Amino acid sequence: MTSVGGGQPLRGRAAECETLRGVVADARSGISRTLVLRGEAGVGKTALLEYAVRQASSFRLAQVSGVESEMELAFAGLQQLCAPLLGHIDELPEPQRNALSVAFGLGVGPTPDRFLVGLAVLSLMAAAADDRPLMCVIDDAQWLDQVSVQTLGFVARRMLAEPAAMIFGVRDGVEDFLTGLPELRVSGLPDSDARVLLESVMFGGIDPRVRDRIVAETRGNPLALLEVPRTMSAAEMAGGFRPAAVRPPADRVESGFVERIKALPHDTRRLVLAAAAEPVGDAALFLRAAEHLGISADALIPAEQAGIIEFGPRMRFHHPLVRSAAYRAADIAERRDIHRALAHATDSTIDPDRRAWHAAHATAGPDDAVAKELEASAWRAQTRGGIAAAATFLERAAILTADPELRGSRAIAAAQTKRDAAEPQTAYELLALAELSPLTALQQAEIGRLRAQMEFTRSRSGAGDAPQVDQAAARLLKAATRLESLHDELAREAYVEAFAAAMYASRNQPDALVRVATAARNAVDRVTDLRHPIDLLLSGMAHRVTGGLAAGTRQLRAALETWCTPAGSDDVQALRWMALAYPVVHESAAGEMWDDDLLDRMSSAMVQRARAAGALALLPPAIAFRAGVYVLEGEFAAATALMEEADAISVAIGHQPMKYHKVELAAWQGDLAVASGLIEAGTAEASAKGEGRLAGVIGYTAAILYNGLGRYEAALAAATEACGFDDLGFYGWCLLELAEAAAHTGDREALAMAVRRLEEGAGVSGTDWGLGALASARAMLADGDEADALFTESVERLGRTRVRSQLARAHLRYGEWLRRQKRRGAAREHLGTAHEMFTGFGARAFAERARRELIGTGEKVRKQAISSGDEMTSQEAQIAQLARDGLTNQEIGAQLFISTHTVEWHLRKVFVKLGISSRRQLRTVSWPH
């Protein structure tokens, strides 16, 4: 047996201790490990964490314990955890070092994205683990501030090759951001061990029947068992006289602590309450507060003798439940008195935010001075990236504001930050508070926009009570229209939001997009000097919807070219505009242009900007956009790697994984089982949400899948349904699928319709991609020499583009036509090229279709399994490519949001798999990618 704090033996935990020893052993050998201990309060998580720390005696230790009253202070928990590691901060790349300094209040600068802070913490831990292994222990993680636990969850998911371990203790029944990490469920002790533990703390006898009933009622909860001597009389333990009603162990144990604290002398209770209300544990601060209360520090001695608290350089409670019990044992007046003393004792220069927070809790009614301090704290928190903390400060500031007009303004600001912090219910309540105040017309319009934004977010969440996407889109349009006469710039921003929402709604409200485009066009046409990319984008898309592609080409090209130029627009503004448009409007605009070079540069610029800023909320959609471009370019392995990365980041930040381009890739790969599953799930989701754009994507990708498989009737049906609405960005691509399916089924009418519509879009693009696609569709409608010339034109034009997947399709169509013209030699040339390209991409179904056609020409072609990267994983291939391009390990880590150690670990495996020994040799070998 091993002993833990308080001298009590750690019993009945053989399996748990073995798991923890394994975690420590792996970390010692250089393999990162993360473990979440999850269980009810008092079940022994803290004791197990202490056991893990003892096993890691040679490790560098960083630890923190979450405290309920600290939950609103941004980065408070993270800063305490990282304090012992900050000697390595100078080893971080400058952007990470600056982000961490601002987040921790050590420096000033622009607001850092909180996940750039996460990358900085990951790098900091890796640097700290260089000389000896690192053990990070986070107890009561459910009480850490939101941004700290999100950041630590992100770091835990990215740790791989560091000699480090992260172990969390989390209470059951509390939402957290650690779901999906390796877990160890901690339950009560087995009955035999529970009986031994109970008997070990009894000073007198205990009736066996009473003992067994206590063991059963506590379900083996160790803390509940240890508290029995303090909560039961000798008579109860000897004779079994005990109330029948039993509360859950955590409640009973905490109630026992409450009774023990209430039994303390009055002044002692007040000092215990002061220690509970100030979770930093700073003894000097505690003594100043005690002095302000007029109480000698000696009054704390009875609490120390009762085993409630330890007084030293840091104040330490016997157990986290004692802290919460101490706070709950006091009435509201006592709490206010203590918070007032703590506010007085806290230095307003060194720690103005905690001072403001204590002052707020000390205030019974409106207090404009305290509200002003809270507002200042909110902006400081937001500057450090603490949106959740800023929202809470502003909420409290609004409630404490006496001036009605100022209260309304602060309530609106608080609602907006609560929305950004993913707390919509509180945001709605704050908007209701704002509406009780006298508001200007602009403020009323801003409230309308906020409500519409939140309704649209709910509509895309799929929640049962959420409005349909088309209803939410209509509300955004109404909000934009209302703003138009009040604030031109805000109105145009709202129109972009309405435009994006209408694009998602599409076919469920067919005229919604036209209504938005018409209103947006009227608004943006009044701007005499269109310079901002967002205004140019809005103008171009509005003219595209109302007047066709030719009407919006000039503005769209100007907007996208500016976006692709690093010096063309301010990066902060560019990121904000990306978020504003979700960024579906940007992606669709690029697709409408039929310009492969612009599409490639646009997708690359989006990813680069999001990576450089560490904007992880924007990074998954930007990466998915880039992955979709890779699919068009025939780089399926690279697309797969990016989609895996986007999913990993989405999981880390609590977002739904991206799906649009994933189903497109599956369709191109031709795996019927995988693609059909994604198509079926997407169809159900589109129906449930009323999300017409998703239905359009599903139809388009189903047409690709079935054309590849040679199931042309099914492809025609899917493409016909998808082309029933002009989905911006991929409608023209879907017309090409419709044309191919119609040509194979003999539906000349559908083929002719597809050609006419392609002429209106691709035909006016003036690009090789657009004109090559149109030539291919026209060739399928033509005969004889005209068809031959058009097929030739299509291959030549697409051969000058990046869209190699469509070039392979053009070769396939030409080869099939040549075989039916009995020109077998020429057919073999084009079919062979198509087969080779599809095989290289990993487009199994299209490769098999080309193989069948080749056999029809008399060519013998062996059926081959398509490789997706030999033995290298997609992430290894991605890292190898970046290393080949000359990026350092640190630069690769920053791009992929992994540590330098992890890059090195992957590269070592790459070298073995490729049979090389250095980075320089990467340029001399090749691998499927």
From TrEMBL:
One GO location term (cellular component): cytoplasm
A Pfam family per the record? GerE
Every HTH luxR-type domain range? 865-929
User: Under the GO molecular function aspect, what terms does this record hold?
Assistant: adenylate cyclase activity; ATP binding; DNA binding
For this UniProt record, the keywords arranged alphabetically read as follows: ATP-binding, Nucleotide-binding
> Is ATP-binding one of the keywords?
yes
- Name assigned to this protein: LuxR family transcriptional regulator
Organism listed in the record: Mycobacterium dioxanotrophicus
